[in-house]
Amino acid sequence: MEIPLLKEIVVVLGISIVIILAFQKLKVPSILGFLFAGIIVGPSAFNLLSSSHEVELLSEIGIIFLLFIIGIELSFSGLMKIKKTVFIGGGLQVGGTILITALVAMALGVEINTAVFLGFLISLSSTAIVLKMLQEKGEIKSPHGKVALGILIFQDIIVVPMMLLTPILAGKSDNIGETLLILLAKLIGVGIVVFVLQKYIVPYIFKLVVKSKNRELFILTTIVFCFSVAWLTSSVGLSLALGAFFAGLIISESEYSHQATANVLPFREIFISFFFISVGSLLDLKFFINNVVYILLFVIAVLVIKMLIVGLVALVLKNQPRTAFMSAFSIFQVGEFSLLLSTVGLQNDLLPDGLYQYFLAVSILTMALTPFVLQKSHNMSSFMLKATIPKRVRKRMNKRKIDNSSQEVDQDHDWKDHVVIVGYGINGKNISRVTSHIDIPYVILDMDYEAIKEAKQKNQPIVFGDASDPEILKHINIQKARVVVIAISDPNATKKIISSVRLFSQTVYIIVRTRYVKEIEENMKVGADEVIPEEFETSIEIFTRVLRQYMVTQGDIENIVTNIRSSDYEMLTSIKPTSTNAVFQQLNIPDKEVATLHVQHGNNNIAGSSIQTSGIGKNYNVTVLAIKRGRKYISDIQPDTKIEIDDLVYIFGASKDINALNKVIKF
Hints:
By secondary structure, the chain is an alpha/beta fold. About 65% of the residues lie in helices and about 5% in strands. The protein has a six-stranded parallel β-sheet, with helices on both faces.
């Protein structure tokens, strides 16, 4: 017995595997691979889908799972934490995009209901692509990451009302007022059912299921619950997607939500692939080729409209211009929910076929551009800042920021021998508490409006500013600081900050908190003294708890952890010495430092000279402790020991003398 759909599944998914493997090599998201696979198997290419209706049914199941998981992730409590960005920022972005798109479309001769629906489609961005890339770059918690996340959450919520309003826009109801009232009554009825399920029924059922300790029963219960609520909303004339979303919200507040997500994710990944494949198969290649110029013009128009609105929204939310540009470069594309919504528009005759083909082409192209734009977003933001804001204006803005942010800090700004904390997140707050408790002077740098507000309420010495900006660093006396702690989630910004700090001081001790072990070497190369990766520290914490269970003494545990940090960290960073004899620690002597200087400049009397003839001790009042030449360490320093170009020279002396020597051998 032959199952007709089985051939389509094997062919479609088989082609998808090959394409996605190739796309992974190019670092392009898998969603684009599925779209491309759909184009290949579609009627305008090789026409390999003979059971297209069945594939569409599979794609509907994928949408149910997608909205179910989004409902789980968008818990009511989670929404409240970033409610300002979600509801104000998201509302302004979606509303502004709909308005401008509709006006442009009507100017081009499109009917008002179709123009508004086009606004719906263009206003939505790709949650799947953007969040995946921001997570990979470690920028979810960065200022622009928070803006993007908040707006995307609002878009995910608003797509459900958009689906409900689409039939009304299509004029499928003679009495719009009566239709809206009926719709409202249905929503209230479903809301009551959802409340009862969430409060009484679902917790009881899941409690019984969990007590059974049967994993298969838990998975089955989760899926049946998801489909039941979807079927309930569909049976009263609402959408399947709305029911799946409500089902997710019901589970989101329970302690079983994480396991439910883990169980459903594999099903979502499989079935959602059919959705993107079916969308890709609808693209008419002949239409695309014949109208490529107009399509590219529409792509440019979409980019301009969305970037402009997102940037303005970020500024309204009191973010800095750099954050505004970064946010605009993150969510400029047309997203997967727009593709879903477009199918609803087709069913209600809101989108003519020609307009639908234009929309499909624009959607696919903007999603394809996203990975490449996000990878270059830092450079493009820096360029846009320089291009749009004159240098003098930028200087005045920076000065005003410094003056305004420092009113409640220390009026004479005479910081000395202090700790500079970059980032007022969880790590920054913990460090500031400890330094405050033991009376170590410190100052905090941050650019997040909410962080600044919170810190000032707690009377924390915080300065608003970019830690990579020389003006900001001068203001906080970076050259007199003893330690700089960089505790932000942006790896590119971290490296820029390290480089900027090193231009002012070679003696300040820079500690960096990073996410991954693989980032240690990059930060060490640009000048960090110590890099603490979260994933490695987590392993150490787990390891110490394991040792406690084996009755290992606390003293022995501390020795083991010390050995791990002093050996494995060096082993993980190829540029650190493996010999403990060559490792120099900061000496706690007032006004004296141990520093490492890189001999880069040959046009002086030091490179190529011996210790004695170079006059290092006599002219600069410093002592050479050791020299690293390539992979070799010279620890037996004699008066006739030579200093060569590209040597790393370990010296001891006053910070002002060390900085004076560094200028001679480096610049």
